[in-house]
Amino acid sequence: MPVAKPTQLSEARFRKLFDETHAMSIQGYRSDGTVVYWNAASEKIYGYSPAEALGKNLLDLIIPHEMREEVRKAMAWMFANKTGIPSGRLNLKHKNGSSVPVYSSHTVVELPGEEPIMFCMDADMRALDLAEAEVQKLSYFDVLTGLPNRRLLLDHLQGALQGLRVEHQYGALLLLDLDNFHGINDTLGYDAGDQVLVACARRLQHHISEPSLVARIAADEFVVLLQPLEHSIGAAATEAELAAQRLLQALRRPVAIDQQPHNLQARIGITVFGNRTDDQHELLRQVDIALKHAKSREETAIAFFDRSMEANIQRRIKLSQALSTALEKEQFFLEFQPQVDVQQHVVGYEALLRWRHPVFGLIAPDEFIPIAESNHSIHAIGDWVFEQCCWQIVRWQQANCCRNLHLSINVSAVQFRRDDYVKRTQSILKRTGANPAQLRLELTESLMAGNIDFIVEQMQALKDLGLSLSLDDFGTGYASLAYLTRFPLDELKIDRAFVTDLADDGKGALLAATIIGLGRNMNLTVIAEGVETIEQFGRLRDMGCEVFQGYWFGKPTPHLPEA
Ligand code: C2E
Ligand code: CA
Ligand code: CA
Predict the structure, then answer these.
(1) How many domains does the structure of the chain reveal?
(2) Which of 327, 375, 377, 410 gets mutated to test ligand 1 (max ligand atoms within 8 A of its CB)?
(3) 8 A C-beta contact, residue 387 and residue 424
(4) Which of 41, 125, 195, 392 could bond to 101 as cystine, CB 3.0-4.6 Å?
(5) Structure pTM?
(6) Residue 6 has pLDDT above 50, yes or no
(7) Phi and psi at residue 313, to the nearest 5°
(8) Do 18 and 88 share a domain, yes or no?
(9) Kind and range of the H or E run holding 294
């Protein structure tokens, strides 16, 4: 075999490289435009096979008619100067007549003793555009549902805000979150979860038309941008609320997952914006707050953002943080409110918790107890209250006083439901040595919403420790009379609302009388709370009530009889 000359070697190498390049069409031309080289990629781009192209003229093959003169001149210049013209975008011609956008580079190669050849290297811009479109789609749309993603939403929102600035209209942003989506994922698997999301996306889309928009911005969070809305903020809000209701309605129709129907529920936060609205990120923050609000309440599936809500949430967050260190910083104290019998002799006290914070001041239990329940600090706080009351009983025992008085202690449903509640209570009793007969736990009616067997068991275990039990706020809702007979209770506490209502001989009087009668029949002590006048006291006493508590007899104070 003859040894190849170095130039032949390098030429072979280049040829191979040219031939096998997929991304770029490479063509070689003589100075008269005859095709002498045509790689495989050129066929892909221009439609001519090498056999069809070789020997033909450049101008006839791929140069559109109107460009021919210009190309002829450029070629003459390149061969004369032995150099290429600058690279750039051109629209050339496919075999089938269509236009081919390419990015084209040129060079003239002249090897010693050979005629000069012009090489053109063209990259297909359609492929680039397609690639760009693909990238665009990925970065602006959610792959699963095909809905716009957070990024595209933000772009649209910005556009919407600018539009409103001019037109004095309103728009609304809705943030929709599926209830228990994680439950579906966990129990039925991610495929089922995906099916649910796609079904949701379709339904939402079905109800929203341009220029409004549905986007998916997180796992189970969809955003709806509604625009334009009515020209007054009130009307715009109403329109947004109706739209939200329609969406919830649409989601409520069962979704078939693996042939099984599933009901979907969702919650929606709404913020309405007008021409003086802040930026789009601010709007997303607002709907988020509104959604949290919608989630925090059982009765509302839809909530609107307003400024006071924001202030509330911020205060709640701050209080929640402060609560976690309130015990160790000794910011809690107790007040005691007397309970009296028909002769108005004190029979015991209700312990009421107070929180004094160095910055926030005195905070009412109605505000901080629900926060303590949701951040779980209620368990430690509740133990502290119980222990303080135990020590008070011990002091009374040691001082040989008040042995017939009891302390009533509020126990939240969250505390009571915890498995170890009885054990903790027992260990505090043991540690302090307090007499349980002088301690009464006030349980609220909201407790009764749970598993009745567990509640009865838990109550019985507390009774077995020697404690007595009272049902607080009785008459406000949950307790069904049928269940009442199953609970090992000692006392019913008539809610303040009935006492307040007594005067007008309305529902309050009738209910109070009924409850008192009921309690007596069941052998329970009946106590009325919130007694503020002597008239109320008189009427309740005449109805058969035996114990009373309220401002008329004494407000809560930090002081108790000691001697
Ligand atoms: P509650 O158990 O129904 O307590 C009675 C509330 O009514 C107390 O408010 C008391 O100050 C108020 N009150 C008493 N007499 C009158 C009256 O004649 N008129 C009026 N208008 N109000 C009267 P407070 O102390 O603000 O407590 C509010 C709630 O906070 C309590 O309602 C109870 O549910 C909860 N709470 C208080 N201390 C504790 C505690 O240590 N643990 C738990 N879990 N909850 C507590
Ligand atoms: Ca109470
Ligand atoms: Ca009460």
Answers:
(1) 3
(2) 410
(3) no
(4) 125
(5) 0.58
(6) no
(7) -65, -40
(8) yes
(9) helix 280-296
